[in-house]
Amino acid sequence: MTEPANPSSLSNQPFWRLILLVDDSRAQRRALAVQLRRAGYDVLEAASTAEAMRICSERRPDFVISDWMAPGRSGLEFCQNFRNMRQDRYGYFILLTSRDDKRDVAEGLRAGADDFLTKPVSGAELLARLSAGERVLRMEDSLRSANAQLKETLSRLREREAAIDRDLREAQRLQQSLVSERNGRFGDFDISLLMRPAGHIGGDLVGFFPINARRVGLFALDVSGHGVAAALLSARLAALLSGTAEHNIAVRVSKRGRHEARSPAEIMRHLNRLMIDEVRTDAYFTMIYADLDISSGEVRLVQAGHPHPVVQRADGRIELIGDGGMPVGVFAEAHFEEIALSLAEGDRMFISSDGLTDSENPRGEPLGTEGLQAILRTNAVLRGNALLESICWSAANYALGKRNDDISAVLVERGHPCRANPTDNVTAFPALVQQRPGNQDRPEDH
């Protein structure tokens, strides 16, 4: 005879639960069912495992209390089948048995049972075991609810990520449009530009513009950091170095209406004041601004923390220009020194961001200035875009296709009557990377 249950023992039970009793003894089932209903549970009964499986497929009980020796299949087999059913929530399984052998207990646990009760069943112990199972089910309910919320949140995040990705792709097109012309010819000078952001958008910017019939301004800058903030600042700087003379800070209009060039140092001081007094962010940028006289080939430039411009003479000699200089937007009283040089026929000047020279091979060794010089020597016969693409290919091959920073470049070339065709010898560029072991694999397309 089972002991009567005390309904107050489950006074903390806040959820409605369904219990399935499986036993071939109708009297045993009814005795347990009465106690459980008094305790606040809804109870279903099954006289065989076949009937129990049908009920489980239709109702999905929260608790199953089954006799080990149930008719049809054993309670152990029923427990295994119950566990193998696809269920949207966990079911707590209690086996009723007269066995007390530890091996039987281990076998029941392996079959998927959560707990055991020894016959005859004590009502107080039954409710205590159900109370313990209730804690498990509450935790499962909480986890399931949290998982549903997580899935919903992830779904919303994916939607927002897709929207952000669309916006960034549009921003990429807009940023690329800041460089409206990638090539320009002024007298016997050719200017070519390259921009390759590491992500959708970046902080690098290059450009050129005519000042008057004799002078051309050109620039390369690299905003600190990456992403949207850097791109916004580079876009603002682009607006200051483009457009009409009335809006371009590099040009002033004389009283006679003539367009005159501001000095590179004056332009840098203006941009530095703008960063310190108006922009007021932690961002800064490195830059090279050059004023090119296309009649004489004279160049005046300022290097403000940007990598050294490289001049390759017609005879193949390479010169590094500048001493480094201070970045723009760091010190209010920064001094910017002008550098003068001359480009003769057959000479060229190459300016790039540090994303190129910082390219690293698998051993963590950067390409560096020496690697860049080797690329320029190897590709001496190439011109314009063919040279820029070759340089990018060589750097990518050196880094096995890995790129963590934006790459931008300006190439200024003075024509030569014996200049080779730009498409000649386009296979010359692999020479540098072949000199370095471990870089024979083809990089990703760029």
Automatic annotation (TrEMBL):
Keywords: Coiled coil, Hydrolase, Phosphoprotein
Pfam families per UniProt: Response_reg, SpoIIE
InterPro entries found in the cross-reference section: Bact_Sigma-Reg, CheY-like_superfamily, PPM-type-like_dom_sf, PPM-type_phosphatase-like_dom, Sig_transdc_resp-reg_receiver
Superkingdom: Bacteria
Family matches, as SUPFAM superfamilies: CheY-like (SSF52172), PP2C-like (SSF81606)
Record carries keyword Lipid metabolism: no
Gene3D superfamilies, sorted: 3.40.50.2300, PPM-type phosphatase domain
Coiled coil, from the record: 140-177
Positions of modified residues (4-aspartylphosphate): D67
Response regulatory domain sequence ranges: 18-134
Protein's name according to its UniProt entry: Fused response regulator/phosphatase
